[in-house]
Write a structure and sequence with these properties.
582 residues, alpha/beta, 64% helix, 4-stranded antiparallel β-sheet
Length: 582
């Protein structure tokens, strides 16, 4: 919880105001039994009506003051808890944005969502109650004990016994339930993961008729969470009957012992009433603490999970004074003996990339091809610095990308990912995502180059047409073309295409590549592709085989010198095409 307390500092004045008002509530609560005792001792028994009216009016006034203080306290506690939760969400979100892909994979997307939502909500709820109960209850207990001793020392043992039994019961229940609290949040992570997979992959689930299997998988995750929560709830369900039993037995014992002392003229009847009320206040104060014991363990677990996110540093290290890219930036990319292995893999695992070296020049297209799993997309991820190389260097215009300011690096790159991901909104808002200041002419030009202009104009609302989350209301080819257009809006000196033509028909593919070559010819182009037809005209082709370079050159050169490339070509081209291209 220490991390949470750091985020409470801006709200210190609100907490102090809440503490002051809680003190007012305690004073009011402790004053009422005294007036009740005076009404009985000096009003009811002697028959003085004026005493009853006067003390009754004071009790109403004190109650009114207590209510006003409670309302204002509620406002301050709510503002504090909500503000801290808001700041924590913002901090967690910003931290995650700075993570490399390694940290994202370490936590998992579903867990990060749970930590940003459910965990912070747990902390918010507990914090709002803790400010009130953990401050109010101790003050009330101490004040109640002092006032009770003033009224009757001989009855104090009853309250002490009741308090001891109650606290002992709460401690036992707490330690029984604590282990379960530690696994509830991980079970919520699991439930979120299964839910996200089912919802995002609903078409695949239906296509393979695996609804029953997915129902069982969800039921298991749901049942595990429900059973764990049920155990905790059942454990604490016995708390209320025990508390009621203790309260009723305490009341009966105070009345019985007090009545005998009153009959012996050892204590006034009004003092018995006052002591009974003070006893109830003392027991209720410990009950408030017990309520916090129910919430606190889960909040502590949630706070620990939030702290883990906030204190996990990105594996990417940035210099305090990074290099700023010059105005005459050209965009020459050099891979010099680059070797890479994903984080959290053992030393015995093979490298994903080993000794990769090539240069991509402005105005040229460099293609990367290879079998599935050969490391093609990894090359682009390293170029974007989603990961850092294990050894070797990646240079831009002779500068190591690890020395360049992250924002400058990404500002110079137009990236089209393998999965064409669009955001909910409109076609226009998605195209503006690359550059909020882009003009309409640039947007239209980008859509035209990406061969998206035609299908956009066919829609009734054109560029203002709705785009569902992930672009689910568009075809794969339409999503891919919009993803390409979005990158082109950026008008960047470097473009990275990660198998971005796979969903396009051959005609559209050819038209798009021709438009790219004629209208973005000065940019450095790196194209990852599966189809040889897509990259046959590239200025150079890098062939990867199990993470190593099997060859580099033009299509014709590789057809003569690279066996791996010839095998790929043989699987995709006809004999006539093979003869014509060799």
């Amino acid at each position: 919880m220490s991390k949470v307390f750091e985020y409470m500092k801006p709200y210190t004045w609100m907490v102090l105001c809440a503490v002051a008002l809680l003190a007012v509530e305690v004073i009011c609560a402790l004053a009422l039994p005294n007036y009740m005792a005076e009404i009985v001792n000096d009003g009811v028994l002697p028959g003085h009506i004026s005493v009853i009216w006067r003390n009754g009016a004071m009790m109403l006034l004190i109650t009114f003051i207590s209510v006003i203080a409670a309302v204002i306290t509620g406002y301050f506690t709510a503002r504090t808890a909500t503000g801290v939760a808001n700041d924590l969400r913002e901090a967690v979100f910003k931290k995650v944005l700075g993570y490399s892909s390694a940290e994202i994979n370490h936590f998992s997307t579903s867990s990060l969502i749970t930590r940003t939502t459910n965990d912070i909500t747990q902390v918010q709820t507990t914090l709002m109650m803790a400010i009130r109960l953990l401050i109010f209850a101790p003050m009330l207990a101490v004040g109640g004990i002092i006032r009770a001793l003033e009224r009757s020392e001989s009855l104090t043992w009853i309250v002490a016994l009741a308090t001891f039994v109650m606290v002992g019961t709460m401690v036992v229940l707490f330690f029984i339930a604590l282990p379960k609290f530690k696994i509830v949040q991980s079970l919520i992570d699991r439930l979120n993961l299964v839910s996200r997979e089912n919802l995002s992959g609903i078409l695949v689930v239906r296509a393979f008729s695996t609804q029953n299997f997915e129902k069982k998988r969800f039921d298991k995750a749901n049942r595990d969470l429900a059973e764990t929560n049920l155990f905790v709830d059942q454990t604490f369900a016995v708390m209320l009957p025990i508390v009621n039993l203790i309260l009723n037995l305490t009341t009966a014992l105070i009345v019985w012992v007090g009545a005998r002392q009153a009959a012996a003229f050892e204590v006034n009847i009004g003092d018995i009433f006052a002591f009974l009320q003070y006893g109830m206040l003392i027991i209720f104060s410990f009950l408030m603490v017990a309520m916090m014991l129910v919430l606190l363990p889960r909040a502590v677990v949630s706070a620990g999970r939030i702290k883990e996110v906030l204190e996990t540093e990105s594996s990417l290290k940035y210099k305090k004074d990074p290099i700023r890219l010059p105005d005459d930036f050209r965009g020459t990319i050099e891979f010099q003996d680059v070797t890479f292995r994903y984080p959290d893999t053992s030393e015995s695992d093979e490298n994903v990339l080993a000794n990769i070296s090539f240069t991509a020049n402005p105005g040229e297209t460099t293609a990367i091809i290879g079998a599935t799993g050969s490391g093609k997309s990894t090359v682009l991820k390293l170029m974007l610095r989603f990961y850092d190389v294990r050894s070797g260097e990646i240079l831009i215009d002779g500068m190591d990308i690890r020395d360049i300011k992250k924002e400058d690096l990404h500002d110079k790159i137009g990236y089209i990912p393998q999965k064409a991901l669009l955001f909910s909104g409109t076609i226009h808002s998605n195209l503006l995502y690359a550059d909020k200041s882009a003009t309409e002419d640039r947007i239209l030009t980008a859509a035209d180059i990406a061969q998206a202009k035609e299908f956009i104009q066919e829609k009734p609302e054109g560029y203002d047409s709705n785009v569902a989350q992930g672009g689910s209301n568009l075809s794969g080819g339409q999503r891919q073309r919009l993803s390409i257009a979005r990158a082109l809006v950026k008008n960047a000196p470097i473009y990275l295409f990660d198998d971005s033509f796979s969903a396009l028909d051959l005609k559209t593919d050819a038209m798009l590549r021709a438009a790219l070559k004629s209208r973005t010819g000065d940019s450095t182009m790196i194209v990852v592709a599966q189809r040889i037809s897509t990259i046959m005209d590239a200025d150079q082709i890098v062939v990867l085989d199990h993470g190593t370079m099997a060859g580099i050159g033009t299509h014709k050169q590789l057809m003569k010198t690279c066996e791996v490339y010839r095998e790929i070509a043989a699987s995709q081209l006809t004999e006539e095409e093979m003869l014509a291209s060799s």
